Amino acid sequence: MAGLRKLAAAFFLLSALLSAQSQPSPELKGILDRLDRLEQENRSLSEQVKQLRSELAAARGEATPAAAPAAAQPSTAERLDTQQSQIEEQAQTKVEASQKFPIRLAGMALFNTFLDSRQNGGFAYPTVAAPGTALAGATLRQTIVGLEFSGPRTFLGGTVRGSVYMDFASGSAPLAQTMRLRTGSIELDWTSRNILVGVEKPIFNPREPDSLAQVAISPLTGAGNLWLWIPQVRLEQDLKFGSHAGLRARMGVVETREVGPYDTTALPPGVAAVRPGLEGRYELYYNLDGDRRFEIAPGFHASTTHASGFSIPSNLFSMDWLLKPWRVAEFSGAFFNGQNVANLGTGAVNQGYVVYRRIAWPIDSLGLWGQLTIHALPRLDLHLFSGRQNYGLQYLSTGDVSRNAMFGANIFYRIAPNVLIGPEFSQLRSVYIGQGTLINNHYDLALAYLF
Fold first, then answer.
1. Is position 140 within any domain?
2. 347 within some domain
3. Which SS3 state, helix, strand or coil, does residue 351 take?
4. In angstroms, rounded to a whole number, what is the distance separating the alpha carbons of residues 339 and 352?
5. CA-CA distances (angstroms) from residue 339 to 13, 290, 303, 359, 427?
6. How far apart are CA 88 and CA 86, in angstroms?
């Protein structure tokens, strides 16, 4: 009987417990409801993560990864190890400045193979036709390496930025291809104002034709393009005329290169190596839309050459332009007219002044170049260019160049987003007083990797 009483008591106790579980208290019911909601949210988040992974894989062009079983998922420690290795790999490949400000490696690895006809003067890329023999070769000398940097904000809300670009074109022997400075600048930049110090093209002449054949020197040098990189300090101010038009004004002081080549007939030149000059450029622009644009910019240069006790003026007026009325075509170029402009260019053709009857006379010069660019295909651009430069005949003598002209064409084709192949042909025609015209044909095939 005692056993039956114990069994009955256990049965009633179990029934009470089951009844209590079937009718939970309000507190227990609230806890169970929250657990259900958390479980549903976890399932929803898991589905969203899977969907995002699939979309990311599709954007990268990868196959969508199949869901792995739970046992194959990496552990937290394994994921941390993977992320650490990726961080270390990125730290090995990035360029870091000692002052912890952003710096970027930029430039172009450029391979050229070329052929020059006779009358190249012994130069692979002549700026004036001169007696010589046919010349062919290949080079990486025109490769450009640059650093672009940006710094912190400075006074009045401005920022600091700049760049340095170099190439390997200073040497002439096969193993003497040493690095040289091309351009470099430090700039203070505000919303509508900019101050630059550095070495750049002349302020009045920032444009140049497009070429992968002539990179060590600017295309059309001595044939209308005064390209020489010169030290300068300049101020730029932007003025807006509504939402589509404006004026970009530049003024500055430059250091001219006064050392030859000059034509002197009586006294030795005794030229002061460098002289200060004043330059300006005032660009008016109008934007039709994001692709179509018009620009026209008058400019000037004024300086004085000191040589053998003489002061020879160097003055010119310039005009450059960019006309892009259609998305597929644009026309750009520049014009100048002045005297004693050899201090703004390079090459054996430039002539600045002549000493005649114990008086120094500046030689007049007029130059013009233009380029038509046709964006034929998304990856294909065609450039047609031509330029010429004339010199006043009054003070020239037999053997001097009175006119130098060049015309040519090239193609830029992108075989990859950052890889260009560019065949080019150009012809240089130099007219010598009393000796006729010499002609040089230049053929070039370039392969460029942009980085």
1. yes
2. yes
3. coil
4. 7
5. 118, 39, 11, 16, 26
6. 5
Residue 60 has pLDDT above 80, yes or no: no
pLDDT tens column, 109-153: 999 999 999 999 988 889 999 999 999 999 999 999 999 998 888
Q: Is position 168 within any domain?
A: no
The residue among 433, 260, 428, 440 whose CA lies nearest residue 352 is 260
- Alpha-carbon distance of 268 to 243, in angstroms, equals 56
CA angle 292, 297, 298 (to 5 degrees): 160
Q: What is the dihedral of CA 287, 289, 292, 293, to 10 degrees?
A: 10
The answer to whether the CB of 212 falls within 8 A of the CB of 448 is: yes
Q: Any idea what the CATH number is for the domain that residue 433 is in? A: 2.40.160
What is the model's pLDDT at position 237?
Answer: 98
pLDDT, residue 353, reads: 85
Position 26 scores a pLDDT of 58
**pLDDT tens-digit profile of 394-413?**
888 888 899 999 999 999 99
Position 14 scores a pLDDT of 44
Instruction: Compute the distance between CA of residue 19 and CA of residue 263 in angstroms, rounded to an integer.
Output: 118
- The answer to whether residues 44 and 50 touch, using CB atoms and an 8 Å cutoff, is no
**Does residue 337 lie in a domain region?**
yes
Query: What single letter denotes the amino acid at residue 415?
Result: I
DSSP string, 201-213: S-TT-------SS
Q: Is 156 helix (H, G, I), strand (E, B) or coil?
A: helix
Cα(248)–Cα(203) distance, rounded to whole angstroms?
Answer: 12
Mean of pLDDT values over 215-227? 92
Q: Which tokens is 78 given?
A: 């394994």
State the residue range of the domain holding 407.
Answer: 113-148+204-450
Residues 6+ apart with CB under 8 A from 98: none
pLDDT tier at 285 (50, 70, 90 boundaries)? very high
User: What six digits make up the tokens of 330?
Assistant: 């644009």
Question: What residue type is assigned to position 387 of the chain?
Answer: G
Q: Which of 113, 144, 274 is nearest to 217 (CA)?
A: 144
The mean pLDDT value of the chain amounts to 84
**Count of domains observed in the chain:** 1
Tokens of 244: 């589509």
